[in-house]
Amino acid sequence: MKIAILSKSRKLYSTQGLSEAARKRGHEVMIVNHTKCSTVMEKGKPKIYYQGEALDDIEAIIPRVGASVTMFGNAVVRQFEMRKVITTASAQAIEISRDKLKSIQLFSMLNIGIPKTTFARFPKKDDIPELISHVGGTPLVIKLLEGTQGLGVVLAETKSAAKSVIEAFSSLEANILVQEFIKEAAGTDIRAIVVNGEVVAAMKRQGAEGEFRSNLHQGGHSEPIELSKKEKRAAIKAAKAMGLGVAGVDMLPSSRGPLIMEVNSSPGLEGIEESTGIDVAGKIIEYLELKFERKKKRKKKKIKEEPEQLETYQDFEEAVNPEPVVIESTSL
Questions:
Q1: Which residues lie closer than 8 Å to 182 by C-beta, 6 or more apart?
Q2: In Å, how far from its chain's centre is CA 268?
Q3: Going by C-beta distance under 8 Å and a sequence separation of 6 or more, which residues neighbour residue 149?
Q4: Cα dihedral angle (29, 33, 36, 42), rounded to 10 degrees?
Q5: Where does CATH 3.30.1490.20 sit in the chain?
Q6: Contact predicate 325/240, CB 8 Å
Q7: pLDDT tens per residue, the chain (332 residues)?
Q8: What are the residue ranges of CATH 3.40.50.20 in the chain?
Q9: N or C: which end of the chain has fewer CB within 10 A?
Q10: 170 Cβ contact partners less than 8 Å away, ≥ 6 residues apart
């Protein structure tokens, strides 16, 4: 395969790891800064250009699209999909997983465990007590919808503190979620990497002393962990809900079972590989290989059939991303 890793920097650990894993398995790899791509659309001919060259021979992509460029990055991913290029994450799945509100609404509908959460648009002073009561009172957690890596997350331990923080965010017209605080998690969470419907690696993260956030970017530390059956099921179900074949699932241990915090469509590999010693990058390349072989079999089958006619975006989604997980490895 000729694989393009969509990444803003070839120096990043995850980008280097994926590139090395693909080359070890005999694939040709190209690092493409998706923010420097241009897309050209005309009737029946979607094209992508990078550094003056048309990317016509790419067979698979691994999107590493940062949150700050989700819209543009997704446009590039979607353009590759329209060219029937296989991907570890569809543009639609990336978009849904990046939307914290939409994600948590989906989890709620699909009966996936989550912390009790409320959302209101720029609540006024008189509305705040009701928001606080919806999540069971204080302490509670306030999150910016656009925050990443633990930034934009505040623990309010008293009602007065919660009111002050919510009022401040509201005055800035910032969209926030208000969530219950899971005391029994004790500053820990679990990161599980799901690839092709299986948990391939997991670690427990512990926040720095005095810090309720467990993100490694905020000074936390990690250790490998063997997940319980409930935790594995929750992680797999959450990844599937997002339509992701590769995902980093963050969850909190609680007295009522694992609670999903968020699902990342391009999880960092450095922390999980260093903590567990597992070659997660290699697992991702194996998944791409399975998708590529499956695509070739579907293509051979369709030669004998009538060519498909795409009339709606849903037709397109079903054509390029049929059943994102699970692909049986025995098909190789």
A1: 115, 252, 254, 259
A2: 10
A3: 215, 217, 218
A4: 50
A5: 116-181
A6: yes
A7: 999 999 999 999 999 999 999 999 999 999 999 999 999 999 888 999 999 999 999 999 999 999 889 999 999 999 999 999 999 999 999 999 999 999 999 999 999 999 999 998 888 889 999 999 999 999 999 998 875 555 688 999 999 999 999 999 999 988 889 999 999 888 899 999 999 999 999 999 986 665 555 555 555 678 999 999 999 999 999 999 999 999 999 999 999 999 999 999 999 999 999 999 999 999 999 999 999 999 888 877 765 555 555 555 555 566 556 555 455 554 44
A8: 2-87+281-308
A9: C
A10: 122, 123, 124, 176
Under the phi-then-psi rule, with left for phi > 0, alpha for psi from -120 to 50, and beta for the rest, what region is 185?
A: alpha
- Residue type at 44 in one-letter notation: G
Distance CA 245, CA 228 (A): 21
CA distance linking residue 22 with residue 150, whole number of Å: 31
The domain defined by 2-87+281-308 folds into: Rossmann fold (3.40.50)
- Report the top-level CATH class of 116-181: alpha beta
H helix or E strand, kind and range, residue 252: strand 246-252
Identify the DSSP state of 83.
Answer: T
Listed in order, the ranges of the chain carrying CATH 3.30.470.20 are 184-277
Whether residue 202 contacts residue 191, with contact meaning beta carbons closer than 8 Å, is answered with yes
Whole-number Å distance between alpha carbons of 50 and 314: 28
Q: How far is CA 134 from CA 127, 137, 144, 327, in A?
A: 11, 7, 18, 41
